[in-house]
Amino acid sequence: MKATARANTNIALIKYWGKRDEELFLPTNSSLSLTLDGFYTTTTVEFSKELINDELIINGVRSSDKELLRVSRFLNIVRRIAEVDTYASVISENNVPIAAGFASSASAFAALAAASTKSLGLELSKDELSILARQGSGSACRSIYGGFVEWKMGKRDDGKDSKGKQLLSEDKWGLTVLSAVVSSERKKVSSSEGMKRTVETSPFYKGWLDTVHDDLLDIKAAIKKRDFIYLGEVMERNALKMHGTMLGARPPILYWESGTIEVISCVYKLRNSGIPAFFTIDAGANVKVLCLPEEEYKVREALMEQKGVERVITCHPGRGITYL
Ligand code: DP6
Questions:
Q1: What CATH code would you report for 176-315?
Q2: 190-232 pLDDT, tens per residue?
Q3: Which distant-in-sequence residues (6+ apart) come within 8 Å of 46 by Cβ?
Q4: How far is the CA of 27 from the centre of ligand 1 (A)?
Q5: Fold annotation for 2-170
Q6: Whose CA is nearest to atom 14 of ligand 1?
């Protein structure tokens, strides 16, 4: 049977940065994200006795060995659950600039988890889907749900308690996320590699672990009260802290480009002029700017004027996975 699913990407407000188990994608800290409506992956999966290998086509192009290996490894988990041994064809359409800090792996593995299990007739709950998606890419476990989602790190060694939990659905708080694209090139250090190096070599990583839980509590309080300013402040400091841990790694990791700094200065200037806007940056050079919908136009105009900004994509809170 063939099945198609769509998943939106998400932007972490409190970052996942570090694994305690690389095989199961178990994190060293809990994180929190907002699922967005602008970047998504639509994936069709069909398992077939005719196939002699898994096949992967992304945006019409047969994918590289590395990507296929990652998908096959994931499909092996699905095959184990369903107790089948047939190969699958996976056709994926991404409207996310791949590997440029836009968490394309989050929407990709959330969509793949949903489509592959559905195509085998498995009826998984959202919790089960989240646990499964996590084993393809950690941040994918949050994209199963819409709106604000917490990924509870869990304590168990088998990862059964490490999954996403929706805190607020996408229709409960109207916010705008403007993604300022300063580079659509593939990043040189993947998130997996970047976090591993940071955990293993950065003297600043302890500071991250000592404080990230408090950031999470603070942001949850801000969401509960719909306190936009506080939400923005906590989000911004958490992102800068994560990038700070990487600067201490050996060799250091710096994802930023000159355009990244231009956008950060622009956000500071907007705030000084009385427009509340805040930024966050994932493992890449692009910057996501959070603002209120009523300021969306002004903030977008200001971002577009910055040197190095190729384009600005407007997003709003988005839904969790859907089947097409
Ligand atoms: C900086 O989920 O892409 O975007 O689990 O190794 O696939 P893997 O990493 P990934 O890392 C995301 C890192 C981040 C922060 C976040 O999304 O929480």
A1: 3.30.70.890
A2: 999 999 999 999 999 999 999 999 999 999 999 999 999 999 9
A3: 1, 2, 3, 88, 89, 119
A4: 10
A5: Ribosomal Protein S5; domain 2 (3.30.230)
A6: 282
